[in-house]
Amino acid sequence: MAKLMATITETLGRPSIVLGEEGRNRKRVLVRVQEGLDPERPVKVFAPKVGLPLVSQDDVVDGRALVRISTEGRYQRGAVGSVCVLDGDPVLVAQGKGAYGDAGRIGEWTDSLILMSPGDVLRVKPCGVPAKVYVWDGENLKILAYSEAEFMGVDLRGSTETARAELTELKG
To answer: Exposed (0-12), middle (13-18) or buried (19+): which is 60, by Cβ within 10 Å?
Structure first.
């Protein structure tokens, strides 16, 4: 189904993908991963009606990618990291949240697992740094500065914070 572009770690003795942080104004999310999963082979995502999504092995290659995108950037008062859709229909599989400061109120960022199809384009704005454009072409994830995206012909109209499209959530 999809190419996996996230790091698998051991959590409580089980393989998982960890998103976000623990603590005040933060949210840590664990995405379950099938035992013995080969990250070089395609994966699929199962979303139960209740509980956490499960990433498992698949034999079908369809050009999609399961991508982890964190908007953690530079520590800066009032900074908010965000991801928005410029083109296509990427799907939000799971999302954690991180924050700056002991109480988590200096700034905040998201840590997302997103299923991207060929042609999907995202605007990713990490905290305190310029936004980038993420383009999935079916084989590679291209991370471009705005000038590079314009040069490649990516439509950046509506790419401001106030005119963004939200990610569609994965439904069970």
So the answer is: exposed
Given a contact cutoff of 8 angstroms between Cβ atoms, the answer to whether 20 and 112 are in contact is no
pLDDT of 172 strictly over 50: yes
Return the amino acid letter for 137: D
Q: Dig out the tokens for 103 from the structure.
A: 């109480």
Q: How far apart are CA 32 and CA 43, in angstroms?
A: 12
Q: Are 43 and 50 in contact (CB under 8 A)?
A: no
What is the Cα–Cα distance from 101 to 19, expressed in whole angstroms? Answer: 18
Note whether 112 and 53 are within 8 A (CB). no
User: pTM here?
Assistant: 0.87
